[in-house]
Amino acid sequence: MAGPAPPRRLGWWSGWALTAGTMLLCLAVAEFVLRWHASPGLLWHFPNFVERDLRANDGERDQLRYDPVLGWDLQPEVSGLLAGRPITISADGMRSHSRFAPPGSGPPILALGDSYTEGYAVGDDETWPTHLERTTGRPVLSAGVRDYGIDQMVLKAERLVPLLKPATVVLAFIASDIDRTARAVRSGRHKPFFAATAEGLELRNVPVPVGPYTAPYQAVRRILGHSLLVHFAMNRLGAYEIWHGDSLETGENGDLLSCRLMERFAALMRRENTQALVVALPRYEDWAWPRDGERQRKRIAATLGCAGRAGLPILDTYDAFARAGVARDPEAFFVEWHFNERSNSLAARLIASGLATGSR
């Protein structure tokens, strides 16, 4: 009597199809759970999350103007909202402040930096340059511009310092600004960049191309951009810029460029006989993702080291923020991933102290 027939083995194609089907089912379940957790309304509403993110700042674009050397700059004599908070830009293209208080007196301070210095998601009188003016009693010119890298800060210093003749320049940067020096496009806008040469630095992409940047693989974003799971995963993996397609790398080493840019900035300060302070500010990410934060801290230290060796006074504010308790409650110090007024006030006090002591 014949025994039972041996179990039929799946063919290669059948096994592949079963594996693929199982994976697709798992991904569908994960997509469902993530959408339900984010908002039940997303179960029947399928926006393109990439396009939504890129449209989020459309109302702020009128606050910027094209610049052939810097890429972009603040648009003079414009007012509106920046991340929901009122912003006023003066006739000289700087963020206004102290409108309801007497201005400072004495030798002016020029503040250069990115959105932390411009004051993203805080009002005109809540930025750290505003608090610095109150603390020191000296006029502070707020020349920070959102999305700037260290390269654009130094280029702007080379434009403004000979023109405005400030007594002191404060150049404030975050870890992200080191990476931005190795970008030819940032937030969909073309920018200048430097290339490292045997002699030092060579400025390229100037005049900066006019018009928006069109990223490759737009068809992929138009399709997969509707998946909240893909959107969430790409952002958590640190691939925000790649996924959104609004940045273009140059292939240069941002850490090397930032080091040499500190030497270039120091040379400018010597030519203009101007005091300076290079300040490193902490980011929300430094505490939200401590492992990456530690890596970024080393890069910050290296850039500050280059500034110090170039003869520039330096100030690292991380430890002071840590002592203030940021690790216990980052949300109490940040809004929209930027300093809130509490942090801006603390930063201003630290910078004022650094200016008084000539920090190293």
From TrEMBL:
Keywords: Membrane, Transmembrane, Transmembrane helix
Membrane-spanning ranges: 12-34
InterPro entries, A to Z: SGNH_hydro, SGNH_hydro_sf
Domain named SGNH hydrolase-type esterase: residues: 111-342
A Pfam cross-reference name: Lipase_GDSL_2
Protein name per Swiss-Prot or TrEMBL: GDSL-type esterase/lipase family protein
Species for this entry: Reyranella aquatilis
